[in-house]
Amino acid sequence: MFAVIFDMDGVIFDSERATYEGWQEIADKYGFTDLWTPYRQCIGVNYERTKEIFLDFYGDDFPFVEYCREQSENYHRKYDGGNLPVKKGVRELLSFLKEQGCYTAVASSTRTQTVTAQIRDAGLLPYFQTIIGGDRIKCSKPAPDIFLKAAEGIKEADKTAIYVIEDSYNGIRAAHAAKMHPIMVPDMLPATDEMEELADVVLPDLTEVIGYLQNRECK
To answer: Of 79, 98, 123, which marks where a domain is finished?
Structure first.
């Protein structure tokens, strides 16, 4: 028996790219450069850690809170209400896991309220038993806290194997630290030697995850 925990941004939704494009609009508007250098470090971490990374890179006087608020407002105006693009294979994989009776959860560094709303608006809420956002834990990925929290609702029998589907380096590190089985499906960041070592497998998309899990008994 096994369970599957999903990251959200970059795994369920093509939202990492959408967020980066939103930040690039802010950078163009206010004239700061080299956005990708700090942004790539923020993939997979929560708001507080993202703020630290931006301030470390641009300086303590960088108006992160104001820029982030403007970027967030623009993002939600554009993508709320079910407009966020879903990644290839999401619905097929979730249907497969539901048919097999597998426990599924979302563990995302995004706030729980936002995660729940986006999952609901995409019509995916019935597929998940648990949703944990970054505001529910103290330490951001790469600490294992969020995955351990998501696993609290898993039946003891399912804890023999917990698979975590992640696109980010910090997420793979967190899943490995939690002693779970990381599956990396790269999005904006390519797999590195470190990721190849820490992940059980690196797959090109979620349809390949179905094949990978197909021979593993869920019931």
So the answer is: 79
Whole-number pLDDT of residue 157: 63
Instruction: Quote the CA–CA distance of 114 and 208 in Å, as a whole number.
Output: 28
Domain extent at residue 99: 3-14+86-213
- In the chain, the N- to C-terminal Cα span, in Å, equals 6
Asked whether the beta carbons of 123 and 91 are under 8 A apart, the reply is: no
The answer to whether residue 218 sits within a structural domain is no
What CATH number has the domain bearing residue 131?
Answer: 3.40.50.1000
Number of domains in the chain: 2
15 within 8 A of 9, measured Cβ to Cβ: yes
State the alpha helices, DSSP H only, in the chain: 15-30, 36-42, 47-58, 64-79, 90-100, 112-121, 145-150, 169-177, 193-198, 206-213
On the question of pLDDT at 219 being above 60, the answer is: no
Instruction: Indicate whether this model's pTM tops 0.90.
Output: yes
